[in-house]
Write a structure and sequence with these properties.
Elements lengths: L3 E5 L2 E2 L4 H15 L3 E6 L1 E2 L1 H4 L4 E5 L8 H19 L5 E5 L7 E6 L3 H6 L4 H4 L3 H22 L1 E6 L2 H9 L7 E3 L27 E5 L9 H8 L6 E5 L7 H8 L5 E5 L4 H7 L2 E4 L8 H8 L4 E4 L13 E4 L5 H13 L1 H16 L3 H18 L1
Parallel strand pairs: 1-3, 1-6, 2-4, 3-5, 6-7, 7-8, 8-9, 10-11, 10-13, 11-12, 13-14, 14-15
Helix pairs in contact: 1-14, 8-9, 8-12, 11-13
């Protein structure tokens, strides 16, 4: 039986993590011949003229900041839903995106938990940008509590997010964990010439990706550990503008072994060129790059503070109890840089785990949840 679904998020395209999740859910809903109304600012080209899709565009481009854009989006989306609620069997929203009541709220980020983090931007940067980030997170923290109360079921995209929701007061009976997917075709084992990427041959090479302009991703601890693993090189993909870490590498005397690549779009190729992936993020609701590395057949080093770490077994990687433990990180990097055979076995195990986390499998879980909730009504 076809359902009449309404999904609310900013983007239904592949360009961002939340956008990709909703893009895949829409694809699966179309495969099952359901009728879908999309409320958002951006949708994939392939959805624009589809017979089963109605798009309600929410225009927020004129607003100068992300906070104002979010406020404008919420007001417009909430108003539209209130007028058309009776037209749908199920409404799926994402986080604090609207104040309207929903059947399912998919939570990708818990602002209340991030606000309490010791590495929140407002604690690291004591300037206007830090103040803006405090305001942005605080306001979203207030909105999300209302949004979670207004949902019948709350979906957490990782076990870490589920724990944060419980700490916020959401009943565990209302929480369903559906782990985000990964593109197992784009990210797959293979080999790429390091020379074509500007990277050195014949040395053990780790890979680090993410925002390196703040301390949240924890590149500082990685560099301090690298100092104690003298044969290891590391490729670092992330915008270097306003990043303190190139200078830190220079001061530590490891510039020749730290390869800052700036922002890159060829992450799948970089993963094929690396020997293992390092991602001891201090705060991460869902580590997409972590699972992408596993899909690429790379052993991983991460920390329990990173969402997605629950997927990493002792056969596929190393999970640190403390992301700031330099000695433990050093030991892990030594182990993975020292044995090609060990890395190969771990990488094979990582790939097997990632194959179970395909986007298709994730989307099918969402549609299964929607159907189950329909049957209960």
């Amino acid at each position: 039986m076809a359902m009449r679904l309404c999904i609310v998020t900013h983007s239904f395209a592949k360009g961002s993590g939340q956008g990709r999740v909703n893009y895949e859910v829409v694809k699966e809903a179309l495969r099952q011949k359901h009728h879908i109304t999309l409320i958002g600012s951006e949708i994939a080209t392939e959805f624009e003229e589809h017979d089963l899709i109605s798009w309600v565009p929410i225009r927020v481009e004129k607003w100068p900041t992300e906070l104002l854009k979010n406020i404008a989006f919420s007001i417009q989306a909430s108003s539209w839903i209130q007028q058309h609620r009776a037209e749908f069997d199920l409404i799926n929203v994402n986080g604090a995106i609207t104040a309207a009541k929903s059947d399912v709220n998919a939570v990708h980020f818990v602002h209340s938990a991030w606000l309490q983090s010791p590495v929140h931007t407002s604690r690291v940067r004591r300037d206007l940008y830090g103040l803006y980030q405090w305001c942005y997170t605080s306001i979203n923290s207030f909105w999300e509590k209302q949004a979670f109360r207004n949902a019948k079921t709350v979906v957490a995209v990782s076990e870490r997010v589920a724990k944060e929701l419980v700490a916020l007061g959401v009943s565990s009976e209302r929480i369903r964990v559906i782990i985000n997917g990964v593109d197992t075709e784009e990210f797959a084992p293979g080999s790429v010439s390091r020379n074509t990427l500007g990277l050195p041959d014949n040395v053990p090479l780790a890979l680090f990706t993410g925002d390196i302009r703040t301390s949240r991703k924890n590149l500082d601890t990685v560099l301090l550990a690298l100092l104690k693993v003298p044969d290891l090189h590391i490729a670092i993909a992330g915008r270097t503008d306003d990043s303190p870490y190139p200078q830190m590498a220079k001061q530590l005397g490891i510039s020749q072994r730290t390869h800052f690549l700036d922002y890159r779009r060829d992450i799948p190729a970089l993963m094929k060129a690396a020997d293992f992936f390092v991602f001891p993020s201090r705060y991460e609701p869902w580590g997409l790059a972590l699972v992408e590395a596993m899909a690429s057949g790379l052993p991983v080093i991460t920390a329990i503070t990173a969402g997605g770490a629950e997927l990493v077994t002792s056969e596929s990687g190393i999970v640190l109890d403390d992301p700031n433990d330099i000695e433990s990180l050093t030991d892990a990097m030594r182990k993975l840089s020292g044995s090609n055979e060990h890395r190969q076995k771990m990488g094979e195990a990582a790939r097997v785990i990632a194959e179970r986390q395909s986007w298709e499998a994730m989307a099918q879980q969402y549609l299964g949840l929607f159907k189950a909730m329909m049957q209960m009504q």
